[in-house]
Specification:
The protein is an alpha+beta fold. It has 8 helices and 8 strands, in the order αββαααβααβαβββαβ. The protein has helices spanning 13-16, 36-54, 72-85, 93-102, 128-143, 151-159, 181-187, 222-251, and strands spanning 21-22, 25-26, 112-121, 170-174, 194-195, 200-202, 205-215, 255-256. Strand 1 (21-22) and strand 2 form a beta hairpin. Helix 2 packs across helix 3 (72-85) and helix 4 (93-102) packs across helix 8 (222-251).
């Protein structure tokens, strides 16, 4: 295969991309192509860095970073800025009790499930579309058996990219701490037993999951988890306040080449 010429469209793709800026400060060089998430992260960091300078928490000569990583002084100044700018209310007893009532399963102890799975691993270079079709086909096959046979074991042995495939995909008894969080969210906190009706996505790939048995464990009383609940609600309030503060900064800034939610009125309560 011949190499692209210097004048071909793919060679000049980066050069055609506009440089995103916050109040005239470039977030990347002209030859860099960033993902939307990376670009938004850099924009938010730069908004906060400039706000820290405006608040005299950071020296005016602190230079913006070329790689999106702020200086140590800027990090400390941004932390100080957020500490004085974000108002984080202490969660009330009523709010904590409402949260506990709505999320009892989250604070359950001893809950476990006997699980087996078929893993279709997502690895570099894999055709994800084709992989999904294979996984969906396997899911359909194991869910449509007549109940007199068990195709799951054989499918795990022949298709799974997990060493457990040699054991028919059996992972044994698991609790939420044994699993990746995104896998645990699909398995725990529900009564369903049997092959789950949809593929489970995790950092490792796509899973066909069979929950063979469940042990519901025991719900913890409110008093035992009051501290954990308060911490969760504080974190939720912090995230909300930070989002609103960034919207306020974005509404007052000159923004080029990056889409940020902007607000031109104070939102932080």
């Amino acid at each position: 295969m011949s190499a692209c010429s210097p004048t071909c469209s793919c060679a000049n793709a980066a050069a055609d991309m506009p440089v995103a800026r916050i109040n005239g400060v470039a977030l990347h060089t002209a030859d860099q192509i960033l993902s939307t998430d990376e670009l938004r992260q850099r924009a938010c960091t730069e908004l906060l860095r400039q706000a820290a300078q405006t608040a005299d928490l950071l020296a005016a000569n602190d230079a913006p970073s070329a790689d999106g990583v702020p200086s140590e002084a800027a990090v400390e100044a941004i932390e100080a800025l957020l500490a004085q700018s974000l108002q984080i209310p202490e969660p009330s007893e009523e709010a904590c009790r409402r949260h506990h009532a709505a999320h009892t399963a989250r604070y359950r102890i001893g809950e476990r499930a006997h699980v087996r799975h078929i893993l279709f691993a997502v690895t570099p270079g894999v055709d994800v579309v084709a992989l999904r079709k294979r996984a969906e086909g396997a899911l359909l096959d194991v869910r449509s058996h007549d109940g007199q046979s068990d195709p799951f074991t054989e499918a795990a042995r022949t298709l799974s990219n997990c060493p457990s495939g040699q054991e028919g995909g059996d992972l044994g008894w698991l609790n939420a701490q044994d699993c990746a969080p995104e896998f645990a969210r699909e398995i725990f906190g529900q009564p369903e037993v049997g092959v789950l009706p949809r593929l489970v996505h995790s950092r490792f790939g796509l899973h066909v999951v069979d929950v063979r048995e469940r042990d519901a464990g025991a719900d913890q009383p409110f008093e035992a988890v009051r501290g954990a609940i308060a911490m969760t609600l504080r974190q939720q309030s912090y995230v909300t306040a930070l989002r609103q503060y960034l919207q306020l900064l974005a509404g007052a800034a000159e923004i080029e080449g990056v889409d940020l939610d902007a607000a031109d009125t104070p939102l932080v309560q």
